[in-house]
Amino acid sequence: MIFLLAIVIGVLFTVGLYMMMRRSLTKVLIGLMLLGQAINLLIFTAGRLQRASPPLIPLGADQISQSADPLPQALILTAIVISFGVTAFALVLARQTYTVLGTNDMNELRDTDIIPKYHPEIPPEEEEGY
């Protein structure tokens, strides 16, 4: 099972890095999400079942032979919440970039002299003077 998870983690890392190397801002965001999921799966795999007994056992209760470590699960839950927030912010930022500049291509976004198609501070009648 761990071997299968290692293969899935490797595939997610590879596809995520490949998508992050593309020119489209949307593909970069998809690659970022895949990379985040690969990291979550890696943490999940690292926190596998242990042969140790649970830390808190009531008196007179039967001991369980294996237990799950709650720390990796808490880390994954925190990482999911943080990645959701970062992804939502990045999607809004990418949408606003496309709305203002009219392009989603990373090579075109490198130019500093781009005249925006829409600028909220310039009234439409003054845009003719550009």
TrEMBL record:
Keywords: Cell membrane, Membrane, Transmembrane, Transmembrane helix. Signal peptide: none annotated. The keyword Cell membrane applies. The chain crosses the membrane at residues 6-21, 28-49, 74-94. It comes from the Bacteria. The keyword tRNA-binding does not apply. It is found in: Cell membrane. GO terms for cellular component: plasma membrane. It is a multi-pass membrane protein. It holds the Pfam family Oxidored_q2. Its main location: membrane. Coiled coil: none annotated. PANTHER family: ANTIPORTER SUBUNIT MNHC2-RELATED. Belongs to the CPA3 antiporters (TC 2.A.63) subunit C family. This is Na+/H+ antiporter subunit C. It comes from Bellilinea caldifistulae.
